Amino acid sequence: MLDDMLDYLEKTRERPVWQPIPDEVRAAFNTPLLTTPMSLPEVHELFMQQVLPYTVGNTHPGFMGWVHGGGNPVGMLAEMLAAGLNANLGGRDQIPLEVERQVTAWVRDLFGFPLGASGLFVTGTSQANLIGVLVARATALGIEMRRNGLTSDRRRLVAYTSTGAHCSIAQAMDVAGLGTAALRMIDVDDLHRMDVKALEYAIAADRQQGYTPFFIAASAGTVDVGAIDPLIALAEVARRERLWLHVDGAYAALAMLAPDIAPLLAGIEQADSIAFDFHKWGQAPYDAGFILVRDGVRHEATFSAPAAYLKRATRGMAAGSPWPCDFGTDLSRGFRALKVWFALKVYGAAHLGTVISHTCTLARQLEQHIKREAELELLAPVTLNIVCFRYRCKNADRVNADIVVALQESGIVAPSTTTVRGVVAIRAAIVNHRTQAKDIDALVTATLDFGKTFT
Ligand SMILES: *Cc1c(COP(=O)(O)O)cnc(C)c1O
Predict the structure, then answer these.
(1) What is the per-residue pLDDT for 34?
(2) In degrees rounded to 5, what are phi and psi of residue 136?
(3) In the structure, what pLDDT confidence band is assigned to residue 77 with cuts at 50, 70 and 90?
(4) For residue 353, what is the domain's CATH number?
(5) CA of 166 to the centre of ligand 1 (A)
């Protein structure tokens, strides 16, 4: 199994990025529960034939869709060790928790957060954004709200984010019981960054109408175009208005590791909370999201709960409080920290930064290439590693959507689509450490070929 997976990663370039799934393969996953066992080699063979070839292909250098990380072999091996230990990181006195605390201390320092900051591995930034909203909500309404519920409080909390924000911010407002209508979508400027004047105007208007502003969700790397909101200005507004500043840095916050990109994130150190993923630009195998909260006391007060069977001690296995289960809603938790700890030790933080920086260089090369081709049009400025463009033609929306499907089905390169200022864009997010200049060239060549075919 280990040989197969190391071969798989070594030879990833020789396969198509993605291929359509044959009906009979899909049907193999719709059978009754077996009563007679199969041998391990037999099931492994099923995996090799029916699972391995039909993933979405984000380990492949030609994968440029959405924001998916490429993973790494050290992380893969660490996952095997973690599964062998079968550690439950909800709490108790064990070194696996010290590994998670070590990674937390590293990211706390990386973002310039104080010693009292708290951190927690979660599934992904969607969950981390939700935790950010919940801690801010408890801070705004007071801890009694946890017992009395929202209905006991007549204040109507409202939050702010940009029109470029990820949909998980609105979902967090929904799940937190505040409602998506209480999230004000602030306009963006030419560079797709939140318009600070429009934000200030919206806050003033809300206060005038009796609402209680409590939360700003800034984006550090919007999912569509990779824009970074003006964090320094937003921190100033948050301070003046006494609002919680949360940064959704899902993929781009880790650009703090790249000395040439990090200055774009200036101001992030002033946030109250930061959500980000190790499984995107950090190249960790899925899943490895993270929430960092400046005030660890507030964070703990939002989630900690007394239970006799979770009683803490100063000695024995129940020592070492607070536990991770005091900082989120998961009690049983896997050892996500190990694959991140291993990768940071083996490759080094500086090398991960170099990888991040390189993907931005490739994006700029793609931008230049697009500008040279008369048939192609750039649709958004390139800040980081995301390039939105289209093939110029009549019925451009339909043709460009068709081009993306054709590219994906070709197995050569796999961008995705988005809509930029009302038009369909081919969107290439270069996240994978395996992607090279030749993959960028292949994207342009194949786009031009399909464009000609479809017009
Ligand atoms: C990917 C992404 C998310 C969601 O993160 P998950 O890890 O997929 O839950 C949120 N915000 C932004 C900006 C993203 O790129």
Answers:
(1) 84
(2) -65, -40
(3) very high
(4) 3.90.1150.170
(5) 7
308, pLDDT greater than 90 = no
CA–CA separation, 425 and 19 (whole Å): 22
Q: Are residues 241 and 322 in the same domain?
A: yes
Question: Which residues, in sequence order, are CB contacts of 81 under 8 Å at separation 6+?
Answer: 338
Q: How far apart are CA 211 and CA 453, in angstroms?
A: 55
At residue 306, does pLDDT exceed 90? no
Cβ atoms of 153 and 159 within 8 Å: the answer is: no
Same domain, 287 and 357: no
- 248, 278, 290: residue to mutate for ligand 1 pocket, most atoms within 8 A of CB: 248
Q: Are residues 214 and 189 located together in one domain of the fold?
A: yes
Query: Which residue is closest in CA terms to ligand 1's atom 14?
Result: 250
Tokens, residue 215? 């939360």
In a shared domain, residues 235 and 330: yes
Mean pLDDT on 30-56: 95
Q: Is the CB of 429 under 6 A from ligand 1?
A: no
Domain finish residue from 311, 329, 346? 346
Task: Yes or no: say if 447 and 62 are a contact pair by the CB < 8 Å rule.
Answer: no
Closest CA to 338 of 70, 95, 9: 95
- CA separation for the pair 170, 164 (Å, rounded): 12
Residue 34 Cα to ligand 1 midpoint, Å, equals 37
- For residues 18-31, b (16+ Cβ closer than 10 Å) or e, as one string? beeeeeeeeeeeee
Alpha carbon of 447 to those of 189, 362, 396, 451: distances in Å? Answer: 29, 17, 13, 6
Report the percent of the chain where pLDDT is more than 90. 97
Average pLDDT score over residue span 105-122 = 98
Distance CA 107, CA 337 (A): 12
The residue among 346, 379, 409 that closes a domain is: 346
C-alpha angle 318-322-324 in degrees, rounded to nearest 5: 95
CA 315 to centroid of ligand 1, rounded, Å:
40
Domain shared by 226 and 114, yes or no: yes
- Distance between CA 241 and CA 282 in Å, rounded? 34
Residues 249 and 139 placed together within one structural domain of the fold: yes
